[in-house]
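Collaborator request, handled under Task 6.
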Amino acid sequence: MGMLFQVTDAHKSYGDQTLLDGASVTISDNTKVGFVGRNGAGKSTLLRVLLGDEELDSGEVVRHPSLRLGYLRQHDPFLPGETALEYLMRDSGQPDWKCGEVAGQFEVKGAYLEGPVAKLSGGWQTRLKLAALLLHEPNLLMLDEPTNFLDLRTQILLEHFLREFRAACLIVSHDLAFLGATCTHTLGLSRGKLTSFPGKVEPFLQFQRENRERDEKTNEAIMTKRRHLEDFIARNKARAATAGLAQSKAKALEKLETVEVIGDEPTPHIRAPIVEPRKGVALRCRDLAIGYADRTIASDVQIEIDHGSRVAIVGDNGQGKTMFLRTIVDSLKPLAGEARWGHGCKLGVYAQHVYTTLPEKDTVLEYLQQKGKGRKIQEVLEVAGAMLFRGSHVDKPISVLSGGERARVCLAGLLLSDYNVLLLDEPGNHLDVDTVEALVEALLEYKGTVVFTSHDRHFTKQIATSVIEVRDGRVALYSGKYDDYVYRVNKEIEAGEREAATTRAKLPPEVLKARQASQVAPRRSADDIRADLDATEQTIAQLDARRLALDARLSEPAEADELERLCDELAQVAEEHDAAEARWTELQGELDAAG
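Structure tokens returned to the collaborator:
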């Protein structure tokens, strides 16, 4: 098939904010692309353009006629009272065995599959939506921050699927570990420009850093030469003997231009809260039980956390990680036992129940100045800027902020404070790659105690000095390091996949034959075929316009390299045009057969 879609010279602005400024990209079939860029750079806007939910101000989007786009939307598509299996069958039109087989790849089976969707946690409902999406067999899968709120096990299940997925993917994520495990190519968006890189995300980020450093050195050399020329001109332009030479130097000065540094947004910098190091036990849990009045989630918790440690709380969604965190900060009362903090512990909490209760009337700057008493205004503005509150944005009242903006304000407030214990529930969810890295550096410098949950493996691996696992009604210190924990979960999933493959292999031949027969695509309705015909005709018209534009440019004077490039592009357009016309003929025949 070749090209799935192509964006050419795309421009898109909101007011005075330019998101796309002559951006171009081509996505080919079977290519898995990680899409990175700062928050607010325009990544989600580009996805909406590709989905057809928004239009460009100018530019062109060409989609292949056979493109089947799969997109994980955030709204819940479930009907009241339906089971997970009923939802999958209704949404996809596939038989129950097929729905069960795909759902099983995400461990949605047994009571999870047969029970009501409404009783599933958010993480399990996300697994279900992923299974439904894949049952439509898209040839381009678009995922926008898929790891947000997915536990480690679900992330690994999704990774395993994507590695075996024989189609294209475009994945927006700040989770470098996830992108590194799933994507072979990288797309970067910076200052309105798209950069395609034929490699994984880590080499791409290194490539960006090296290019930036090279361009900055080039600019330094140009500015030094500019100063020398300006000094020479100033000293010699008034002297008759050297006026001609000065004029010549002035012309040379006019030709000196600095290089545009791509991706030169301000680098976020976060200073760690300054606290005195302490020794001994920071938190002691004795005979602790957590849960609801009518249901115990975990009991007999016996844990000690030392001052200065950075503890990751891990476990599958629904096991009780956030409940344990809320219990130890006294947001929820224990069912039994106690969680006692040591003398002198000052707790700073970042969690949804906290950042939804910020003072509505304060502006962002007023709130941060209160939290950072004694800090210089420049330090306050630096942390605000790292959390994407720059310029007039610091004067916004908290009452008008979105949930993600409130989360960043809350986190900024903690980082400006003097808390010696930080309790963080998913601190990276609303941050981009660069800001997460800045947060990592700040927490590594921090001399206090950190207890946190995170679905970002790259973040957790760098921060955690110890691990607490919440699983099967128990909360206990995990004996190994975080890498050991990830390895164990991977092995458990691989064992489950081997068991499922063995089960399928043992199915009777007549069952396998029936399943294969049921996979034959049903005859499509005439309306569906006409819709494809309309899309194909639109593509042919767009390709005709491109061919005319290229013919016109080829008739103009140009350098040999430019002529060669135009000829190559014209040949590609002609090839795509032939394919589109062949598809049109095929669809016309299908429509005739449908009557």
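The cover message to the collaborator said: "Confidence is low (pLDDT under 50) at residues 517-522. The two ends are 28 Å apart (CA to CA). Please let us know whether this matches your experimental observations."
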